[in-house]
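Help needed: design a sequence for this.
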């Protein structure tokens, strides 16, 4: 994957001129993360949003009992950040960590705002992403309140088919809100019935 694939991701949603692409490309910062590297940690001010080019990242919080609550997985072509901290520029509640070797492009909040002025279509692109994210988080909240663990696992498998075998089961369990042991039983049953 390359910086060009990041631009291609954006061009799936909006039309950009060559000059606009060149301007956007000047703002990207390409970085590589090794498995378990943090992009940022809870309590920091999140200065960047990341578009995953390869690998996978996760955002999560840890409660007072030390339990991890995974908010999001971000495989290739997904954006990830602590939206609250990124927009408000106040310390965040989430950590973002690579769960496998990953390559991402970073876009700072400062550069994003500059690009909104110089490339108005980009504001539309991020509005679409934000709306889709809001809908997905709302649906996930409703699912967590109303669906059984088996149904939540089935939804995970539909949303992230490429991750089912690529990430540790304990992370999937934390995402759907069950213990790893319970997930193991459900997974066996799910695979038998698939």
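Sure. Designed sequence:
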């Amino acid at each position: 994957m390359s910086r060009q694939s990041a631009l291609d991701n954006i061009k799936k949603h909006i039309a950009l001129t060559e000059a606009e692409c060149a301007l956007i490309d000047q703002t990207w910062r390409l970085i590589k993360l090794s498995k378990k590297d943090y992009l940022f940690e809870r309590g920091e001010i999140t200065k960047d949003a990341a578009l995953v080019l390869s690998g996978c990242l996760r955002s999560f919080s840890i409660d007072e009992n030390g339990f991890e609550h995974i908010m999001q997985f971000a495989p290739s072509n997904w954006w990830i950040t602590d939206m609250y901290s990124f927009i408000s520029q106040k310390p965040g509640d989430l950590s973002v960590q690579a769960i496998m070797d990953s390559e991402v492009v970073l876009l700072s909040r400062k550069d994003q705002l500059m690009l909104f002025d110089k490339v108005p279509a980009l504001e539309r692109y991020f509005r679409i992403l934000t709306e889709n994210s809001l809908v997905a988080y709302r649906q996930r909240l409703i699912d967590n309140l109303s669906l059984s663990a088996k149904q939540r696992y089935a939804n995970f498998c539909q949303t992230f088919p490429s991750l089912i075998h690529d990430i540790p089961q304990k992370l999937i369990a934390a995402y759907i809100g069950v213990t790893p042991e319970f997930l193991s039983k459900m997974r066996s049953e799910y695979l038998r019935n698939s």
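The longest helix spans residues 120-146.
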